Amino acid sequence: MDFPNLPYLVDGNFKVSETFAVHVYIAQKFCPSIYGTTPQEQARVTQLNRIGDENFMNFIKMCFQDGNDKAGVTAKCMDGLAPLGNLLNDDRPFLRGQTPCIADFILFEHINYANHLSENQTYARYPKLEAFHTRVANLPNFK
Fold first, then answer.
1. What pLDDT score was predicted for residue 27?
2. Is the dihedral of CA 68, 79, 23, 48 positive or negative?
3. Are 51 and 95 in contact (CB under 8 A)?
4. Angle between helices 19-30 and 102-117 (to 10 degrees)
5. pTM for the model
6. Which secondary structure element, helix H or strand E, spans residue 85, and what is its range?
């Protein structure tokens, strides 16, 4: 493997590491439409995915740094939900509109961490995320 790191994926002779690359590979292989079907959709999904991934990873990194307490990590986690979570304030069902995209799964995972760290206070701060989380959890083939 050229860049050994976690996470990584091995699919036959193909090997890839790094979170974003693994996400893109899985999406493109198993459900290409989740990454968009036009150049405009693909650019928008890439934008959403990078914003979500960056905010998620910023708080995850804090978990492994000395000197951070639970309150600080929780605050960073909760604050990181705002950029994507606020898109749902217009009542769109998913981040790009009517259909899910790969960034929805990044936000879903981020919500899971936020719920755990904040002892389920996420939805008090971001009410629209509860229905979103339920929609994603109930997507066919998600479980």
1. 86
2. negative
3. no
4. 130
5. 0.85
6. helix 82-85
Spelled out in words, what is the top-level CATH class assigned to the domain 38-137?
mainly alpha
Query: Which DSSP helix (H) or strand (E) runs through 40?
Result: helix 39-63
Strands 14-17 and 8-11: antiparallel
Is residue 48 a contact partner of residue 84, using CB atoms and an 8 Å limit? yes
- CATH 1.20.1050.10 boundaries in the chain: 38-137
Q: Are 60 and 109 in contact (CB under 8 A)?
A: no
Alpha-carbon distance of 11 to 16, in angstroms, equals 9
Place of tokens 């860049």: 3
* Amino acid, single-letter form, for residue 31: C
Tokens matching residue 135: 């929609």
Cβ(41)–Cβ(49) below 8 Å: no
Nearest by Cα to 110 from 46, 73, 56: 56
C-beta of residue 96 within 8 angstroms of C-beta of residue 48:
yes
What pLDDT, in 10s, does the model give residues 97-136? 999 999 999 999 999 999 999 998 999 999 999 999 999 9
Local structure of 36: helix, strand or coil:
coil
Cα separation, 66 vs 72, whole angstroms:
12
